[in-house]
Amino acid sequence: MFPTASAVGTDRGQTDLSTRRKGGALGQIRLSPRGTVGVVRILGIESSCDETAAAVVENGEAVLSSVVASQMETHSKYGGVVPELASREHLRAITPVVREALEGSGTRLADLAAIAATVGPGLVGSLLVGLTYAKSLSFASGAPLIAVNHIEGHIHAVVLEARRAGTRIEFPALALVVSGGHTHLFEVRESFAYRLLGKTRDDAAGEAFDKVAKLLGFGYPGGPTIDRLAPYGNAGAVPFTFARMKGNALDFSFSGLKTAVLRWVEAHGMEAEIAARRALERSRTQLTTEEWLAVTPPRTLDLLASFQRAVIKELLVRAASAAERIGARAMIVSGGVASNSGLRAAASAAGLPYPVYFPSLGLSTDNAAMIAAAAFPKLERGEFAGLDVLAQANLTLA
Ligand code: KG4
Ligand code: ZN
After folding, report:
1. Where does the chain hold its CATH 3.30.420.40 domain(s)?
2. CA 81 – CA 71 distance, rounded (Å)
3. 327: CA distance to ligand 2 center in Å?
4. Average pLDDT of span 42-54
5. Which CATH code of 3.30.420.40, 3.40.190.10, 3.40.50.720, 3.30.870.10 fits the domain covering 173-354?
6. Residue 122 in contact with ligand 1 by CB distance below 6 A
7. Of 4, 183, 393, 398, whose CB count within 10 A is highest?
8. What would the pLDDT profile of 333-367 be if each residue is shown by its tens digit?
């Protein structure tokens, strides 16, 4: 099945294209403060996991187009991302997705100041598809190639929107990047220099959501389903203990939580309801909240609500103490789990003494606008990659 492509929120139509200039050679690019001469368009390409995405972003702030082809339907029946299938789907989607991003933004290859691609971390076979495509476009068009770290991309989803809104993020900022593959705390300096303060020692938070959902028969990916159902349960009903960390107190751990859910399930004879949900989940995709509620007893809703609250507590307590440690003047929360409505509500209710920024929903999960945005300061610094740059599955940010 061909992946479904969707365009996420763009600024198309609000941008004056009259000052468009040809990219391709750095000497032709005129960078300038907002509102004066110089329009810089970057094509971003993202393929690190199970989304094939391309976007055109102008001056690091205006999303002219953003196309995301999701492979959700391909992987959901396996309960997680199958790397070989992901590479194959990227291969099928990359050309139409890039073409749609260019056409949707009225951009020709010759208009591009640079082509940015995710080089890691991620699945190597998936990364290779987007990166190789970007290299070919760079070679064909003469526009320089910029290598972007996926985690830095997530942070720049927030930077992009702040820039667009004219909001000044104060630095140092504490960034919590929380997705299916990452749960990291970074200190972010004004120059976009990063220092790792803590990370998960086992599962990523999104992975914990996905594993618990799978265990309970809610299918993949589990985060959005648990998010939708948690408000129907009592978050205080099932006590989960907060993981105490030896060594770095800013590290996270989610495997204990996952095991506690497993034990709870074993102790409460839930086989029949789990089987009913699996059958429902196999019958069709895109189930509604009401359909899930019809096969989920109140006690299980309490379990979901309590689990989600425990994950949120684990994330926010450590993020707040990391922020305090570095004297942060802002907090940035990004990555797929940043879509979680309970996390957003808890962060705003926490009364933290600095602003907390989340990306809009379309920019929280994987997308290419964030990759193009992260490339913008690199373009200003002339940080280009050679055509020999490699995909790096385990690339770190700091
Ligand atoms: O950033 P992302 O799209 O891909 C990675 O880089 O991993 O994040 C995907 C992860 C999945 O684990 C998914 O379950 C989780 O983000 N996720 C959520 C929500 N939406 C996506 N987790 C909790 N609540 C959500 N609303
Ligand atoms: Zn991601």
Report:
1. 4-167+364-381, 173-354
2. 9
3. 27
4. 97
5. 3.30.420.40
6. no
7. 183
8. 999 999 999 999 999 999 999 999 999 999 999 99
227 lines ligand 1 (CB under 6 A): yes
The pTM of the full predicted model, rounded to 2 decimals, is 0.91
The sign of the dihedral angle between the CA atoms of 308, 72, 95, 128 is positive
Nearest listed ligand to the Cα of residue 123: 1
User: 156-188: buried (b, 16+ CB within 10 Å) or exposed (e) per residue?
Assistant: bbbbbbbbbeeeebeebbbbbbbbbbbbbbbbb
Higher-confidence residue of 160 and 286: namely 160
Residue 153 CA to ligand 2 center (angstroms) comes to: 8
Nearest ligand for residue 227 CA: 1
What is the pLDDT at residue 37?
A: 44
Using alpha carbons only, what angle is made at residue 102 by residues 97 and 106, rounded to the nearest 5 degrees? Answer: 145
Please state, in angstroms and rounded to a whole number, the distance separating the CA atoms of residues 8 and 68.
7
Q: Which residue has the CA at smallest separation from atom 20 of ligand 1? A: 224
CATH superfamily of 4-167+364-381: ATPase, nucleotide binding domain (3.30.420.40)
Average pLDDT, the chain: 91
Q: Given the CA of residue 150, which atom of ligand 1 is nearest to it?
A: 6
pLDDT tens digits along 242-291: 888 999 999 999 999 999 999 999 999 999 999 999 999 989 888 999 99
Lookup: tokens for 355: 């602003």
The pLDDT, as a whole number, for residue 12 is 52
d(CA 120, CA 203): 18
Centre a 10 Å sphere on the Cβ of residue 244 and count the other Cβ atoms it contains: 8
